[in-house]
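Protein of interest.
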Amino acid sequence: MKIDNFPVTNFNLDTIEKGGFELIEIKEGWLSDRTILDIPHRHVFHELIWIKKGPDYHTVDYEDYQLDDNQILFIPKDSVHNYKPNPYAKGWKLIFAENFFTSNQFKIIKDFSVFVPCRGKMVVKLDSNQSKAVNSFFTLLQSMTSIRQKQTLIISLLTFIEDYFLIEIKEPNTIFIKFIKLLNQNLLEHKDVSFYALRLNTTSKTLNEIIMQSTGKTTIGYIHSRLLLEAQRKLRNSDLHIKEIAHSLGFSDALYFSRFFKKKCGSSPERFREQYS
């Protein structure tokens, strides 16, 4: 069953996809003029959610998250998202497409860890002073009318938040980001750790330590989590046969793909598709 590309609420997608953004304050009554869709949907944009007063409930790429007071969730583009709104929650949502920024502006933020799927740390909690700063960002953003001012402030906000994500995951150096970029380019052809270690001019052991520090997973565990995520997305987002999905992900044998999927997910590809159809 093909999953639709729509947001959980009636965002202005035309504006967002043409290079705009949308800022929404989560407050009493904010849901009254919006259509709530309680089924999973695939994002065609990036979404930043800051909950000042929780809880708020989200599922991102089949993982459940409860956002409590002063917590931030960043949902990268192409993520599968589901949302159970709490009408009493308070905070902000920031939705934007990459083409909201100029090419030079996006170069500043494109390698931020918040844009990385399966990065291990999806939610970060801020202390009271940090929360006041984030609230000031959103309040100021709401009052701005200049596109350039909005672009600059959002970059500053993302940089501010990225620093706290990096503190949380204790990223030791830039090898993790280089690994992610390399994996994005080679995931379907290369699934062995030694390939990435060699290309990054490091050892498999050192790479494993870095990936573990950044995501809480071993290198092969992270590679497998990315493969599983792509498989789940294709099962939900297309009508391709299991054999076709297996081939598209670099598996020469559909039976081996099914065994891999069941071991990692706990159910067969067929059962997973039925469960979410």
Notes: The CA atoms of residues 172 and 210 lie 7 Å apart.
